[in-house]
Amino acid sequence: MSEIHTYPEMDAKLVKILRISENPTSLYAAQRIEELETENQRLRDALGKIQKTYHEEEIKSLKVDWAQCAWKMYVAASPKEFNQSTDGQVNKEVTP
Predict the structure, then answer these.
(1) Could you tell me if residue 88 is left (phi over 0), alpha (psi between -120 and 50 degrees) or otherwise beta?
(2) pTM of full prediction above 0.85
(3) How does residue 57 score in pLDDT terms, banded at 50, 70 and 90?
(4) Helix/strand number for the chain, H first, E second
């Protein structure tokens, strides 16, 4: 048997055809298709919100990373007297 591809547009047409019938099996199938389409859309919407939130959090963390990177580059380029602790040791980890 060949592979069958499904599409939401075809599901909507099938539901209309199945609802014409008074056959309980056809009515059940139509109802089930509608329920699955609704659930699929709800899950897609939830996934979209999760991805958007993750993307926003990822951007925030990148901004922090870039700020830290810029600060370290500034410190590395600064004269040594600005990069020394009070005991005369060179600071290896300097944070903003």
Answers:
(1) left
(2) no
(3) confident
(4) 2, 0
